[in-house]
Specification:
Order of helices and strands: HEEEEEEEEEHEE
Helix content: 10-25%
Strand order of the largest sheet: 1-2-11-3-4-9-10
Shape: elongated
Strand content: 35-45%
Structural class: alpha+beta
Number of helices: 2
Distance between the termini: 46 Å
Number of strands: 11
Largest sheet: 7 strands, antiparallel
């Protein structure tokens, strides 16, 4: 009887490890570092990331930036093929004003107009005055986007 219990415990531990390995291919935990995504995310917040997939406008993405040589978390405001116009304190995507209730505070816009290249995204931090994002590092290739937040 003790031998059967031993094997049952070993099998359960093995199944738990396999389940964890399988889930880690699709979901990961990450810890927020810095204040560039305030007020949406704060320093030390634990987030759940869905790995892979194409980010959509409005998603908060985890990016392995080759320019910055580190992992960053930013909001996707435009995707490949979108036109972006920044002028008079407004951000327009494909001609529509982007309503951004999530930004921390007003920030200085630099007038600009561009088309997001295919297989790229344009990302901004919610705390625009304290964020290194596409305004400085340019468009983000889709290959650098490792996942999108599903929680919180």
């Amino acid at each position: 009887m003790k031998t059967i219990r031993k094997y049952a415990v070993i099998i359960n531990i093995g199944l738990a490890i396999l389940a964890a390995l399988w889930l880690s291919q699709y979901y990961r935990l990450a810890v927020v570092s810095g204040k560039s995504m305030e007020p949406s995310l704060s320093q030390g917040d634990l987030v759940v990331v869905r790995m892979g997939g194409l980010p959509q406008r409005g998603d908060i993405a985890v990016i392995d930036s080759e320019v910055l040589h580190r992992r960053i978390i930013k909001r996707v405001v435009a995707v490949g093929g979108d036109t972006v116009i920044i002028s008079d304190g407004e951000l327009r995507i494909n001609g529509e004003i982007l309503e951004e209730e999530y930004i921390k505070e007003p920030y200085e816009h630099i007038s600009d107009f561009f088309l997001v290249p295919p297989q790229c995204v344009y990302v901004l931090g919610d705390n625009r005055n304290f964020s290194r994002d596409s305004r400085m590092i340019g468009f983000i290739p889709i290959e650098e986007v490792t996942g999108v937040l599903i929680y919180p």
